[in-house]
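Need tokens for this chain, all 263 residues.
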Amino acid sequence: MYITVRERSYWVEDEGTGPVLCFLHGFTGSTSIWEEVRQSFPEFRSVLIDLPGHGETGDLGPVSMETAVHDLEMIFQRLEVTGLSLLGYSMGGRTALCFAERFPHLIDRLILESASPGLSSREEREERIRKDKRVIALLQNSGIEGFTDKWESLPLFETIASLPGHRQQKLREERLDNDIDGLVHSLEGMGTGVQPSMWDSLSSLTFPVCLIAGGEDRKYVAINERMAGRFPDAQLYVIEGAGHIPHLEKPEIFSEITRSFVI
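Here are the structure tokens for all 263 residues:
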């Protein structure tokens, strides 16, 4: 179903009853990337949302991270959600963390997969903006298929090659189903370079936090080790044999970790 807040319509899937577990996808993703994992939580009310520029939500223009999390708060109001476990992957993890920072009273538990609190210094953010501009140029010049070919060849996703064929195909179809303008505006509004750093805010978030990273994704293992030392109440799980998308690469282990945390 679509939920419209401040003239922006978001695609939201709301199924089941019980405690609320909300899923937020990463860049080039959509609600469908959670299809296998969500089945592991039948006793939960599952809420899945396509973020700006992605999936059925589509292009909303350059929506900032700040605007996006305030839109999410209004969506949860419409759904009459007052406390939830919030799970975010990569860009969705940054979004989940930003939401939790702004609206901590709505969070029971926070699960961050392959996520970060942003970049600490202005120089790092400026360099990331330059990189994202190159990604934007690739999107605009190569089209969605050419971009997807390049995106899938990044070292960040090299472990995806070991996935069963049907999972690889599902991931590719999901990426190809996105809109070029939507992805461009997502980078412009919610990219890591334009997002304010949240490193200094982690110590103020007192609810339980679960950090998950793939053992082959050394960059994000290091980031999450650093994050774990900042949160007052955090558990870090490194899933060996997985890269940047543990919930797709090792769904059984990922779901077991998440279940033990939220139940």
